[in-house]
Amino acid sequence: MTTQDLGWTPWPAALATYYRAAGYWLGQPLSQLLLRGAACYSDQTALICGQRQWSYSQLEQAVTQLAQGVLTLGWQPGDKVVIQLPNRAEFYLLFLALLRLGIVPVLALPAHRRREIVSFCQQVEAVAYVSADVWQGFDYRVLARQVQAQCPTLRHLLVLGEAQELTPWPLAGTPPARALPAPPPASALAFFQLSGGTTGLPKLIPRTHDDYFYSVRESARLCGLTPEQRFLCVLPAAHNYPLSSPGALGIWWAGGCVILAEGPEPATAFELVARHQINHLALVPSLLQLWLAQPNAEVKLAGIRLLQVGGAPLAPTLAQQAIQRLPACQFQQVFGMAEGLVNYTRLGDAEERLLHSQGRPISPDDKIVILDDEDRPVPVGQEGNLLTRGPYTIRGYYRAAEHNALAFTPEGFYRTGDRVRLRADGYLQVVGRSKDQINRGGEKIAAAELEACLLQHPAVAAAAALGLPDEALGERICACLVLKGETPLGLPQLRLFLRELGLAEYKLPDRLTLLERLPLTPVGKVHKRRLLEMLQAATMTKD
Ligand code: OOB
User: Fold this and answer.
1) Predicted ipTM of the assembly
2) Cβ < 6 Å from ligand 1: which residues?
3) Enclosing domain of residue 306
4) 246 is a domain residue
5) How far apart are CA 293 and CA 179, in angstroms?
6) What is the CA(337)–ligand 1 centre distance, in A?
7) Between 20 and 30 A from 415 (CA), which of 11, 64, 156, 209?
8) pLDDT tens string 194-223
9) What is the pLDDT of residues 516-540, one digit of tens each?
10) Is the domain of 367 the same as that of 289?
11) Taking the model in full, what pTM does it have?
12) CATH number for the domain that contains residue 421
């Protein structure tokens, strides 16, 4: 099948052959992970969620049973299903059941709202949308009905919990214990991750069984995971980092135990750390800072043996604090992206590397290229734009030919939008980014998406969204607006307007600045760097 038929870009045949020959791609679907787990670690605990727990064989049985149930709904291999669930065991059960059947999930985050979910459902022509009933005060059933009104392909709105008139999960009746169809080929599209994005609407990232499985196995190996691992998942479970770097899937490859936390609040998370003898955490820098600021943090976290930090720039001073205050713990920086490439500092690396680098790639065949703005290679040690290609980095976003022509080179290298330096020791240092994206505590916001929403406000003549440096979150979102008339517009009103447009809460501006005009570049684009300097100068005079 061609790229056009599939909607996604497979690796060129010669490279695929090479990745197989090199042993990266084993030709096994991701469901193999679970079968192997049941065979190798059968009675050991695989998953804990609240008061419930599953051994490896129970997990495998529960997934098989759910897959049988899903078949009774009439979902077919190749169908797409948007999943939006909080950190509950059912997220993993459904994800694994769909992978087993070759039904392709789109992994939405609980924070997404109508605008994002409609876009995902429309892009993949989803047959179903799966959500919780109510979580953190938000009623997903209302969202589900709104989404269905805009997405005629949706046949089921499956609700975990109180479903009202929608389709309830647990599914009605016991499914017939029939044999499942053959699992999908490993080269097939397995599921979609979401891109932090740089454009008006979030792009979908097609991951295959072969490529993802490789990144999981290698991550587990180089992070030194063992059956003793007790991993507390505090970040949204669907995100690439807690799912596969090495995340829950890496833990199950290694025979360890995943414990789910509903959220990252220190009080509840610390309680789970104590109750379940947690020894492995994966955090973003803003959470690390918050957790270390809690009273007796070093006592409460004394049992941690592997502390991973990634998703956003980590200040060396904060890294040093963590290393000093948790001396029994291995510290690891993780610089990854849902598109593929993941870099880790290695266990046992010297402190200088742990503090000042973001690691090196998983695979010897992750090709790293660093180019200047004219696409010329820069010498080692010099800053430039990071491009990459390799056995688990996508070759194109889903159904996005126009954007792919910009985001990928003709040779298939992905333009990450990150500004990096390659050190003489082969490690990467992230120094900034060229992409117009805001990184708010690890959550990515495409400035263009927010700007498109801001421009929908009837009072707004021009809009620019910027990330302003912030002590706690790394960056906060500032909306800079030029208004059409004299009618004033305040931040609360603006946030309400954006919320009503159906934009996720984490994309709403933290700050609003009204200007007479936006500074422009010679070609008439908003001069973001100058705008940032103006805002910072204004803040300093105010202080
Ligand atoms: C992870 O994935 P995404 O897709 O949410 O975001 C990727 C982007 C990177 O391109 C980079 O701009 C930023 O997030 N980033 C970092 C970083 N890790 C990610 N920037 C500076 N330092 C780091 N350590 O965020 C992700 C995926 C897998 C593993 C870990 C993180």
Assistant:
1) 1.00
2) 196, 240-241, 245, 310-313, 333-338, 342, 358, 416, 418, 430, 433, 439, 444
3) 214-435
4) yes
5) 52
6) 5
7) 209
8) 998 888 888 999 999 999 999 999 999 999
9) 999 999 999 999 999 999 999 987 6
10) yes
11) 0.97
12) 3.40.50.12780
